[in-house]
Amino acid sequence: MGNTRRWTAIATGILVTSIVICAVLWVWLGLRIDVLPQRVHVDAVGRWEAAQIDRYRMVVRVQETFRPSGVYELMVVDDSIESAQLFSTGAYRYDPNPIPFDVDATQAASYTVESLFTRSQRLADDLPVINIHTLATSHISYDPEIGYPQHYVENTCGLLVNDAIQACVTEVIVLEFEVLADQAE
């Protein structure tokens, strides 16, 4: 009977110590769980709708499997792409006169605010989100003022093994966002 109590006390001590160590590592490694991604998404959509923005210019850096990666500049009016250009990867920030390529609107349609909200809704339904620094499995962050998705990362391959993460991750980062005045004004 004495040994049972002793082993129970030892097992309880080990369990408590393990939980404390996991919590410390969790904080130290930067692990974050968004417990309410659905609520965060709904709040962001609410801010976006309240802003009533129907004309905007957005510059996004995209890394995505099966689509051209690079920097896109989109002009959007009433949720439709008015013009879209693709700059070569990296050129947007480092070349003072980058040469853009006009792209078909359907090619860039995945990167409008509405499309990113659709993607983030799907992720919000499927998550909590777990990130460990840059090895993110999935992540969504929104502009704190008007709510558009600022950073979107989706890991579709499940496991992070060696360099395989590059082949199955979609990342969209909004580099610039500008509300455009109506032409009638």
The portion of residues forming beta strands comes to: 25-35%
Q: How many whole angstroms does the radius of gyration measure?
A: 22 Å
What is the average of the pLDDT values?
A: 76
N-to-C terminal Cα separation, in Å? Answer: 86 Å
Q: What are the main properties of this structure?
A:
35% helix, alpha+beta, 185 residues
Could you explain how this protein is built, in words?
- The structure is a single chain.
- The protein is an alpha+beta fold and 185 residues long.
- Helix content is 35%, strand content 30%.
- The protein contains five helices and nine strands; from the N terminus they run H-E-H-E-E-E-H-E-H-H-E-E-E-E.
- It has helices at residues 2-29, 37-51, 91-94, 105-108, 113-126, and strands at residues 32-34, 55-63, 70-77, 80-87, 101-102, 129-131, 138-142, 149-155, 169-179.
- Helix 2 (37-51) packs antiparallel against helix 5 (113-126).
- The protein starts with a helix and ends in a 6-residue tail after the last strand.
